[in-house]
Write a structure and sequence with these properties.
Low-confidence stretches: none
Helix content: 10-25%
Strand order of the largest sheet: 8-5-4-3-2-1-16
Number of strands: 16
Shape: globular
Bound molecules: zinc ion
Order of helices and strands: EEEHEHHEEEEEEEEEHEHEHE
Length: 263
Amino acid sequence: MKLKVLTDNNTYIDEYYLGEPALSYYLEEDGRKILFDTGYSDVFMINAKKMGIDLGAIDYLVLSHGHNDHTGGLRYLKDRDLGKVRLLAHEDVFIERSHEGLEVGTPVKREELKVKEYISGKDPYWISDKLCFLGEIKRVTDFENKPVGTRYDGKPDYLYDDSALAYKGKDGLFIITACSHSGICNIIETAKKVCGDERIRGVIGGFHLLENNEQLKKTVEFLKKENIKDLYPCHCVNLYAKHCLYEAGEIKEVGVGLELNIE
Ligand SMILES: [Zn+2]
Ligand SMILES: [Zn+2]
Protein backbone atom coordinates (compact mmCIF):
# COMPACT_ATOMS: atom_id res chain seq x y z
CA MET A 1 0.00 0.00 0.00
CA LYS A 2 1.20 3.48 -0.83
CA LEU A 3 0.17 6.37 1.41
CA LYS A 4 0.72 10.02 0.67
CA VAL A 5 -0.11 12.92 3.02
CA LEU A 6 -2.00 15.55 0.99
CA THR A 7 -2.91 17.88 3.86
CA ASP A 8 -1.54 18.25 7.36
CA ASN A 9 -0.81 21.08 9.81
CA ASN A 10 2.91 20.62 9.12
CA THR A 11 5.01 21.19 6.01
CA TYR A 12 8.68 20.31 5.46
CA ILE A 13 11.45 22.80 4.87
CA ASP A 14 12.32 23.29 1.18
CA GLU A 15 9.13 21.52 -0.01
CA TYR A 16 6.64 24.12 -1.13
CA TYR A 17 3.34 22.40 -0.53
CA LEU A 18 0.56 24.15 1.36
CA GLY A 19 -0.39 23.28 4.92
CA GLU A 20 -3.52 23.92 7.00
CA PRO A 21 -4.82 22.61 10.36
CA ALA A 22 -6.60 19.70 8.72
CA LEU A 23 -5.95 16.23 7.31
CA SER A 24 -6.19 14.43 3.97
CA TYR A 25 -4.47 11.28 2.66
CA TYR A 26 -4.21 9.64 -0.75
CA LEU A 27 -3.80 5.86 -0.81
CA GLU A 28 -3.15 3.27 -3.49
CA GLU A 29 -3.81 -0.33 -2.60
CA ASP A 30 -4.26 -3.35 -4.87
CA GLY A 31 -5.25 -1.22 -7.86
CA ARG A 32 -7.69 0.93 -5.87
CA LYS A 33 -7.18 4.67 -5.52
CA ILE A 34 -8.54 6.13 -2.32
CA LEU A 35 -8.99 9.65 -1.02
CA PHE A 36 -9.27 9.56 2.79
CA ASP A 37 -10.64 12.89 4.04
CA THR A 38 -10.41 16.19 2.21
CA GLY A 39 -8.97 18.67 4.71
CA TYR A 40 -10.64 22.04 5.31
CA SER A 41 -10.17 23.79 1.96
CA ASP A 42 -8.94 23.04 -1.57
CA VAL A 43 -5.36 22.69 -0.29
CA PHE A 44 -5.53 18.89 -0.78
CA MET A 45 -6.30 19.44 -4.47
CA ILE A 46 -3.55 21.98 -4.99
CA ASN A 47 -1.02 19.71 -3.27
CA ALA A 48 -2.21 16.58 -5.12
CA LYS A 49 -1.79 18.35 -8.45
CA LYS A 50 1.73 19.37 -7.53
CA MET A 51 2.50 15.78 -6.53
CA GLY A 52 1.23 14.50 -9.88
CA ILE A 53 -1.75 12.71 -8.29
CA ASP A 54 -4.93 12.63 -10.40
CA LEU A 55 -7.85 12.93 -7.97
CA GLY A 56 -10.19 12.49 -10.95
CA ALA A 57 -9.18 8.81 -10.99
CA ILE A 58 -10.14 7.88 -7.42
CA ASP A 59 -12.32 4.81 -6.80
CA TYR A 60 -13.18 5.52 -3.15
CA LEU A 61 -13.90 8.66 -1.18
CA VAL A 62 -13.63 7.71 2.49
CA LEU A 63 -14.55 10.10 5.31
CA SER A 64 -13.29 9.58 8.86
CA HIS A 65 -15.87 11.76 10.66
CA GLY A 66 -17.98 14.85 10.11
CA HIS A 67 -15.76 17.71 11.24
CA ASN A 68 -15.02 20.36 8.68
CA ASP A 69 -11.22 20.12 9.01
CA HIS A 70 -11.69 16.68 7.38
CA THR A 71 -14.71 17.30 5.14
CA GLY A 72 -14.53 21.02 4.24
CA GLY A 73 -12.73 20.13 1.00
CA LEU A 74 -15.91 18.42 -0.24
CA ARG A 75 -17.11 21.89 -1.27
CA TYR A 76 -14.48 21.75 -4.00
CA LEU A 77 -15.19 18.14 -5.00
CA LYS A 78 -18.98 18.19 -5.24
CA ASP A 79 -19.15 19.75 -8.70
CA ARG A 80 -16.62 17.33 -10.10
CA ASP A 81 -17.53 14.13 -11.92
CA LEU A 82 -17.77 11.53 -9.13
CA GLY A 83 -19.65 9.02 -11.27
CA LYS A 84 -17.05 6.30 -10.72
CA VAL A 85 -16.53 6.99 -7.02
CA ARG A 86 -17.83 4.97 -4.08
CA LEU A 87 -18.48 7.08 -0.98
CA LEU A 88 -17.70 5.27 2.27
CA ALA A 89 -18.75 7.12 5.42
CA HIS A 90 -20.86 6.72 8.55
CA GLU A 91 -24.34 8.32 8.28
CA ASP A 92 -23.49 10.75 11.10
CA VAL A 93 -20.70 12.32 9.02
CA PHE A 94 -23.44 14.46 7.47
CA ILE A 95 -25.31 15.61 10.60
CA GLU A 96 -25.22 19.22 11.78
CA ARG A 97 -22.93 19.85 14.73
CA SER A 98 -21.53 22.87 16.49
CA HIS A 99 -18.74 23.71 18.90
CA GLU A 100 -18.40 26.93 20.90
CA GLY A 101 -21.04 28.64 18.77
CA LEU A 102 -19.48 27.67 15.45
CA GLU A 103 -20.86 25.26 12.85
CA VAL A 104 -18.18 22.57 12.59
CA GLY A 105 -20.03 19.88 10.63
CA THR A 106 -19.63 18.71 7.04
CA PRO A 107 -20.56 21.68 4.81
CA VAL A 108 -21.96 19.49 2.01
CA LYS A 109 -25.02 17.22 2.11
CA ARG A 110 -24.64 13.59 1.12
CA GLU A 111 -27.04 13.99 -1.81
CA GLU A 112 -24.91 16.79 -3.23
CA LEU A 113 -22.14 14.29 -3.91
CA LYS A 114 -23.16 12.60 -7.16
CA VAL A 115 -21.30 9.38 -6.52
CA LYS A 116 -21.75 5.93 -8.04
CA GLU A 117 -22.63 4.33 -4.71
CA TYR A 118 -22.92 5.20 -1.04
CA ILE A 119 -21.60 2.60 1.40
CA SER A 120 -22.54 3.00 5.05
CA GLY A 121 -19.50 3.21 7.27
CA LYS A 122 -21.32 1.94 10.37
CA ASP A 123 -19.86 -1.55 10.03
CA PRO A 124 -16.36 -2.60 8.99
CA TYR A 125 -15.85 -2.60 5.21
CA TRP A 126 -12.93 -4.20 3.35
CA ILE A 127 -11.79 -1.96 0.51
CA SER A 128 -9.31 -4.65 -0.57
CA ASP A 129 -8.22 -7.99 0.94
CA LYS A 130 -5.85 -6.06 3.19
CA LEU A 131 -7.30 -2.59 3.71
CA CYS A 132 -10.25 -2.20 6.05
CA PHE A 133 -12.44 0.72 7.11
CA LEU A 134 -13.13 -0.07 10.75
CA GLY A 135 -16.70 1.23 11.06
CA GLU A 136 -18.02 2.34 14.46
CA ILE A 137 -15.27 2.14 17.05
CA LYS A 138 -16.11 0.19 20.19
CA ARG A 139 -15.50 2.38 23.24
CA VAL A 140 -13.67 0.13 25.70
CA THR A 141 -11.32 2.45 27.61
CA ASP A 142 -12.53 4.73 30.42
CA PHE A 143 -10.15 7.61 29.69
CA GLU A 144 -10.94 8.46 26.05
CA ASN A 145 -13.83 9.66 23.91
CA LYS A 146 -14.74 13.04 25.38
CA PRO A 147 -17.59 14.87 23.63
CA VAL A 148 -16.81 17.80 21.34
CA GLY A 149 -19.59 20.39 21.18
CA THR A 150 -23.21 19.55 20.44
CA ARG A 151 -25.14 17.59 17.84
CA TYR A 152 -28.13 18.95 15.90
CA ASP A 153 -30.46 17.37 18.51
CA GLY A 154 -28.84 19.27 21.38
CA LYS A 155 -27.04 16.21 22.76
CA PRO A 156 -23.31 16.26 23.55
CA ASP A 157 -21.42 15.08 20.47
CA TYR A 158 -19.51 11.83 21.11
CA LEU A 159 -18.76 11.49 17.40
CA TYR A 160 -20.00 7.93 16.90
CA ASP A 161 -19.02 8.40 13.25
CA ASP A 162 -15.32 8.71 14.07
CA SER A 163 -13.38 5.84 12.48
CA ALA A 164 -10.08 4.88 10.83
CA LEU A 165 -8.47 2.56 8.29
CA ALA A 166 -6.30 -0.46 9.08
CA TYR A 167 -3.93 -2.18 6.67
CA LYS A 168 -3.16 -5.85 7.29
CA GLY A 169 0.55 -5.96 6.46
CA LYS A 170 3.03 -8.80 6.77
CA ASP A 171 4.45 -7.49 10.06
CA GLY A 172 1.11 -6.55 11.59
CA LEU A 173 -1.45 -3.80 11.31
CA PHE A 174 -0.75 -0.28 10.09
CA ILE A 175 -3.47 2.08 11.28
CA ILE A 176 -4.37 5.29 9.47
CA THR A 177 -6.41 7.53 11.67
CA ALA A 178 -7.80 11.06 11.38
CA CYS A 179 -8.74 12.82 14.65
CA SER A 180 -9.30 9.77 16.89
CA HIS A 181 -12.20 11.34 18.79
CA SER A 182 -13.25 7.78 19.61
CA GLY A 183 -9.84 7.31 21.24
CA ILE A 184 -6.62 6.03 19.68
CA CYS A 185 -6.53 3.09 22.11
CA ASN A 186 -10.14 2.20 21.28
CA ILE A 187 -9.28 2.37 17.58
CA ILE A 188 -6.30 0.05 18.04
CA GLU A 189 -8.42 -2.46 19.99
CA THR A 190 -11.15 -2.36 17.33
CA ALA A 191 -8.58 -2.83 14.55
CA LYS A 192 -7.15 -5.91 16.28
CA LYS A 193 -10.61 -7.50 16.56
CA VAL A 194 -11.81 -6.61 13.07
CA CYS A 195 -8.58 -7.65 11.34
CA GLY A 196 -7.75 -10.66 13.52
CA ASP A 197 -4.17 -9.57 14.21
CA GLU A 198 -2.81 -8.43 17.58
CA ARG A 199 0.42 -6.95 16.18
CA ILE A 200 0.46 -3.19 15.57
CA ARG A 201 3.25 -2.26 13.21
CA GLY A 202 2.48 1.43 12.86
CA VAL A 203 0.02 4.24 13.41
CA ILE A 204 -0.25 7.53 11.53
CA GLY A 205 -2.66 10.37 12.18
CA GLY A 206 -4.19 12.63 14.78
CA PHE A 207 -4.47 11.05 18.22
CA HIS A 208 -6.40 13.98 19.71
CA LEU A 209 -3.87 14.58 22.48
CA LEU A 210 -3.80 18.30 23.18
CA GLU A 211 -3.61 18.52 26.97
CA ASN A 212 -1.39 17.32 29.78
CA ASN A 213 -3.99 15.10 31.43
CA GLU A 214 -4.91 11.59 32.51
CA GLN A 215 -5.80 10.60 28.95
CA LEU A 216 -2.31 11.45 27.72
CA LYS A 217 -0.65 9.49 30.55
CA LYS A 218 -2.83 6.43 30.05
CA THR A 219 -2.47 6.55 26.26
CA VAL A 220 1.33 6.55 26.57
CA GLU A 221 1.12 3.56 28.95
CA PHE A 222 -1.17 1.74 26.51
CA LEU A 223 1.03 2.42 23.47
CA LYS A 224 4.18 1.36 25.34
CA LYS A 225 2.70 -2.11 25.81
CA GLU A 226 1.82 -2.36 22.13
CA ASN A 227 5.48 -2.13 21.04
CA ILE A 228 4.68 -0.17 17.90
CA LYS A 229 7.57 0.21 15.48
CA ASP A 230 6.44 3.33 13.67
CA LEU A 231 4.49 6.08 15.41
CA TYR A 232 3.52 9.04 13.25
CA PRO A 233 1.43 11.37 15.43
CA CYS A 234 0.28 14.52 13.62
CA HIS A 235 -2.60 16.97 13.14
CA CYS A 236 -4.22 17.08 16.62
CA VAL A 237 -1.21 16.04 18.74
CA ASN A 238 0.57 18.93 20.41
CA LEU A 239 4.29 19.21 21.06
CA TYR A 240 4.07 18.20 24.72
CA ALA A 241 2.09 15.07 23.83
CA LYS A 242 4.66 14.14 21.18
CA HIS A 243 7.40 14.60 23.77
CA CYS A 244 5.56 12.18 26.11
CA LEU A 245 4.88 9.72 23.29
CA TYR A 246 8.64 9.23 22.86
CA GLU A 247 8.34 6.93 25.87
CA ALA A 248 6.21 4.60 23.77
CA GLY A 249 8.57 4.47 20.77
CA GLU A 250 10.41 6.47 18.19
CA ILE A 251 8.24 9.30 16.94
CA LYS A 252 8.49 10.07 13.23
CA GLU A 253 7.73 13.46 11.76
CA VAL A 254 4.72 13.91 9.52
CA GLY A 255 4.22 16.64 6.94
CA VAL A 256 2.56 17.31 3.60
CA GLY A 257 4.19 15.14 0.93
CA LEU A 258 5.21 12.31 3.27
CA GLU A 259 5.07 9.04 1.36
CA LEU A 260 4.97 5.64 3.03
CA ASN A 261 5.10 2.31 1.26
CA ILE A 262 3.81 -0.38 3.56
CA GLU A 263 4.07 -4.09 2.86
ZN1 LIG B 1 -12.65 16.17 14.48
ZN1 LIG C 1 -9.21 17.04 12.89
